[in-house]
Amino acid sequence: MPIETPIDVPLQAYLVLAAVLFCTGVWGLINSRNAVRVLMSIELMLNAVNINLMAFSSYIDGLEIRGQVFAIFVITVAAAEAAVGLAILLSLYRNRETVDMERFNLLRW
Amino acid sequence: MNRFPLYRIGGPSRLRTRAAAATVRSTRRSFEADMDLFGVLPALTELPHLAAASLASVPLATAPAIGLGITAAQLNSGAIAPEAAILIALLVCLLVDLAGEEAAVRWVPPICYAGLGTALVLLARQWNAPLEPSFLGSFLADDLAVAFRAVVAASTLLSLMISWRYVERSGSPVGEYAAILLAATLGAMFLCGSTDLVSIFVSLETLSVSSYLLSGYMKRDARSGEAALKYLLVGSAAAAVFLYGASLLYGLTGGSTGLDAVGVALQTSATPVTALALVFVLATVAFKIAAVPFHQWTPDVYEGSPTPVVAFLSVGSKAAGFALALRLLVGCFDSFDTQWKLLFTVLAVLSMTLGNVVALAQTTMKRMLAYSSIGQAGFVMIGLVCGTEDGYAAMVLYMAAYLFMNLGAFACIILFSLRTGSDRISDYAGLYQKDPLITLGLSLCLLSLGGIPPMLGFFGKIYLFFAGWADHQYLLVVVGLITSVVSIYYYISVIKMMVVKEPQEASDVVKAYPPITWNLAGMGTLRTALVACVLVTAVGGVLSNPLFTWANGAVTGTPMLQQSIASSAAREATAIAAAPVPPTPAILG
Amino acid sequence: MTIASLTQLICFAALSITLVVGSLGVVLLPNIVYSAFLLCGVFLSVAGLYLLLNASFVAAAQVLVYVGAVNVLILFAIMLVNKKEDLAEIPRLALRRLLSGGVCLGLFLLLLRVDLTTPWAVPGPVGIGEGATIRIGEHLFSDYLLPFELASVLLLMSMIGAIVLARRDVFGSDLITGEDVDQGLIEKVRPPLLLDPTTPSPSALQETI
Predict the structure, then answer these.
(1) Residue C193: its pLDDT value, please?
(2) Nearest CA in chain A to C126
(3) CA dihedral in degrees (C155, C156, C158, C164; nearest 10)?
(4) Helices assigned H by DSSP within B365-435
């Protein structure tokens, strides 16, 4: 009976990749001055989480693949969050005419 | 190869059969059995999802006839009947809103009251009901969840009662406002009972996304938009961090997302990964309950959001955050309780100190209440750190007390800003001559928040401190007592501003105070909510026995908390038996 | 090493290089439009990784939702708010970036240590392969039914909320009293008590709106 060959790329490779992506996202979150770019950085972080979930799902949980279901939920929620974020940004842009994070200072940070 | 969380799937009948056959093969077979259900489900899937979500009213009546797959009893969908009532109210609100703004102003309030009232009644019927996991382990309606869900639903009810006039006066659409607030409630209530990482994530995000929308609801006001944007960015980042922790936990369990499986896996796991997961998860919890140093969003969001929304965020959202903290830390990270208790001790000390000290310097009521709510969260954390029966009961009691006193205070400041358009503390000078009701209500609520006897807040606080002292949390109790005194100072200074000033010292807005009228739509409910909150705050302290019984019942009726209490007692007993000399009680527990 | 596994390795290397370079471009490039297109590349290479992991359904969802919806939304938002702005200089910007870079590097080393030292339970059971889509559907209608239904509420609410916030209408008057309204907070901005002559007061900012 032919046994499916295990995947050759180790699990850790995916995890490290996700860690790189996550930290890039965190750096962008802290340093971006454009609010749209901050939203993009958050998307990067969420994608890193998804890579983690998918890697665990296929290496550890190949039968039940709960990680894939989890990742689908993350994708759904991320889309909703991006839509809401851009709507808020748009309404704020109408009032302030800027997307510069440093100038959102009506409220003391 | 016993990594499959069989005990989670299905109700008690399946629990017995499956526990015997814990092999991969039997799992496969039972899943094939489950698949037969999907012959039945197309009828369900063709319904819109929303209709399917109100499963309480649409039970899967066809499934038992097949005899296989998931039956309605296994789903135990009755557990979410209160949420179903709120969901129906939400949908009806949206439908009514289609008929135009006039119809919405007329009909949305009664619909919301009906939905939330039904939810509260249904919650009362769930109290002490036989405990069964519902939705195949996604949700658990234990007494703790019922208590916190009741706090959330009541806070929404009161927040809605004080919102109508505010929202109409600002010219924002009422129907959508109510719908979004109800969706936030739905998320918060599901969050209180979720026992699965996926449900926790989705309900957390439902609460958060609705909260972002609500804080940005005054869309022509730059402060509101800014508050919403900051809340959204910080909140989404916190969610991403939580998810990273959750993905590590998923990897640790070897393929399960249930909290009990996570708890089992954590007992045998290596240190670095569990520590990291603990910190990531804890950061999110601390963000939600606004504990220092994860509090930076709070003052801005509270200042920039519409005031009724702040009322909901400071009570409902925070209660859900504490329920999540209990579920995750006590239910899941129980084997690391020394670590997380130490972390929470630090958070509690920082929150109490910073919240109460910075509140001294504030010049607007909303911002002062924001910092005071950070301090109040610190007090509640004392109960969490204790981990004793009294500690948990004191948490529940204080959340309930906080509901009434904080919402009473918010009702007063909303009324004041509706009449004068200001929330600056100095503008309250000399108010008692023009508006005795606001003066009296705000004074009583602030005294209660400060913990002056015989108000409700005093009994809540004394119970918390008593529980902390009994558990040798001396540092926390001492810091709590000192910061309480500080908080009394700034609460009293507001009262002094209102009461002691001579008529000629009154502020300009008070001198130009409009005649008091209640005949506008929405003002009557505002008055009702204000009077009710103030009454409960003032009289509830003396008659607080039912509340004590209720809070204690919530703890004794919750197996998760009882297990944790028993296991920590057992650990203590073995520690005492092992050591010839009784160990000196550590200050930090 | 067989041809198949070599191909897989090469694909993984190519995808991960695209991913890392793309994500660095997203956060570093000065022009935000380029960032948005690079983000598209990042999403696509993540989808490629999912294909390598035998998850065709999630890969399709990734392409449809992230590339098709989120990225297009971001591009629209960039076009709508793309006014040329002169960003005011921030003192010690380079130091701030360096410092936060150090923090992120520390975080990365921590994550690296956790990823590499934890004894993950590999290899797990043999993968389900092409049956994955069916299994996902089973999960969505059995043990993840509650979050699945709740997600529909979340999507409905974010749709309604986004429309309410982004549309331009303004109610001219209070429906009950007939007064003029401005869809702003009731608590109006007031000049601070101790006016600092050097900084513009918030009320001045508010009046320009």
Answers:
(1) 52
(2) A62
(3) 160
(4) 365-386, 389-420, 431-434
Q: How much is the average pLDDT of B409-434?
A: 92
Q: Which residue has the higher pLDDT, B190 or A6?
A: B190
CB atoms within 10 A of CB B454: 14
Q: Is residue B199 within 8 Å of residue C153, measured between CB atoms?
A: no
Out of B9, B55, B270, name the one closest to residue C143 (CB).
Answer: B9
pLDDT of residue B576: 77
Question: Tell me, what's the ipTM?
Answer: 0.93
What one-character-per-residue DSSP string does B492-548 give? Answer: HHHHHHHHTS-GGGS-HHHHTPPPP---STTHHHHHHHHHHHHHHHHHHTTT-HHHH
Kindly indicate the confidence band of residue B13, based on its pLDDT and cuts at 50, 70 and 90: very low
Q: Do B218 and C184 touch (CB under 8 A)?
A: yes
pLDDT reported for residue B3: 38
Phi/psi of residue B567, nearest 5 degrees: -70, -35
Interface contact flag, C124 A59, Cβ < 8 Å: yes
What residues of B are in contact with residue C53 (Cβ under 8 Å)? none
d(CA A61, nearest CA chain B) in Å: 5
Partners of residue C54 in chain A, C-beta under 8 Å: 58
Look at residue B17 and tell me whether its pLDDT is greater than 60: no
C194, pLDDT greater than 60: no
Inter-chain CB proximity B522 and C176 less than 8 Å? yes
Residue A103 neighbours by CB distance under 10 Å? 16
Cross-strand partners of B139: B134, B194
How far apart are the CA of B21 and the nearest CA of chain C, in angstroms? 18
Instruction: Count chain A–chain B contacts defined by CB atoms under 8 A.
Output: 134
Q: Is the pLDDT of residue C196 over 50?
A: no
The reported pLDDT for the residue numbered B146 is 95
